[in-house]
Amino acid sequence: MAEQNRGLMVRRHPGDDGPLPQKTPLLLQMEDIPMPVAGAGEAVIKMERVGICGSDVHYWQHGYIGDFIVGESCLMGHESAGVVHQVGDGVTNVKVGDRVAIEPGVPCRRCFHCKTGHYNLCPDMAFCATPPIHGNCCTYYKHAADFLFKLPDHVTAEQAALLEPLSVGVHACGRAGITVGSNVLIMGAGPIGLVCLLVAKASGAATVTIVDLIEQRLEMAKQLGADFCITSSTKETSEELAARIEKTVGHKADQTTECTGAAPCISTAIYGTRSGGTVVLVGLGRPKVEIPIVNASVREVDIRGIFRYCNAYPVALQLVASGKISAEQLDNFVTHRYKLADAATAFETTLNAIQTKSIKVMIEC
Questions:
Q1: What is the pTM assigned to this prediction?
Q2: Measured between alpha carbons, how far is 181 from 226 in angstroms, rounded to an integer?
Q3: Which helix (H) or strand (E) holds 55?
Q4: Rounded to an integer, what distance in angstroms lies between the CA atom of residue 146 and that of residue 142?
Q5: Tens digits of per-residue pLDDT, 52-108?
Q6: What is the distance between the alpha carbons of residues 125 and 110, in angstroms, rounded to a whole number?
Q7: Is residue 115 within 8 Å of 93, Cβ to Cβ?
Q8: Count of CB atoms within 10 A of residue 266's CB?
Q9: What DSSP character marks residue 237?
Q10: Which residues contact residue 2 at a Cβ distance below 8 angstroms, ignoring those fewer than 6 apart?
């Protein structure tokens, strides 16, 4: 019997063929898709686990993110791991049967950014589930073999799938300069704020303070090792919240990772960071926001951006394999698990995160 490949597709409604989708949310459905065949330098992976990212849900609900627009359809999923099923010519780093984590972005390898080690900025990046590139929430998936990372026996497929969001945390903490003895502030206790927490603690941060509006997320942050969990209020100004954080903790932060993208939180991040410190903007919100730039300038608070990650997967894998980020922490981080056949329900769970109390939803392929 021939092997069957099925995947979770977002698809425009019939007749909706304009520049931007007119009818949203898009259709979300399991579909039969072609079996991939490994070409030179490629491998086909039998997928085991795929985590759901907020970007996946956004494409389903809105049909685009920035300039990336779903055409007719797009397979979802990019936080993933599986077992090598087939290898193409010239592949030497993995073999059939190897368990691997999949770094989802494949750059051109030739441009200035790639050659200088910043391949995440490659203008020709092919990134899973970023239209027009299909994702890997499916049974079988083809990928560039040099962006596969062989797993130690004790690292599970679920943990390997979490290397993707963890890599965002690795890159963010690296850009911030978080190291042994750092006092860190994290704005936002969603999935990305929580992985920044895990990486900051694993990097030796002395204190990590995390702020959110939602108590349930702060409860998870406490489980994952946060030293201070502070509930924000929409009734406070950014300056008032920063002052309350400083009073609670006893000092301003050396480094802050802002993981919400909300303008008031960016402002709090600046006010709450010590003179000479660093704010890293991880969350993405409105294209233009008003922030206290003069306050940052005269106090020499550096403001840095990040875009995905580069050279972070090996570090994330080592943090997990060594136990610096523990199996128990990662198990707690995943709050809901579904079979591939129930992937649409998994997306609904992620969409309604406040009601379902979900943090990270995982699909078993």
A1: 0.96
A2: 15
A3: helix 54-62
A4: 12
A5: 999 999 999 999 999 999 999 999 999 999 999 999 999 999 999 999 999 999 999
A6: 11
A7: no
A8: 24
A9: -
A10: 35
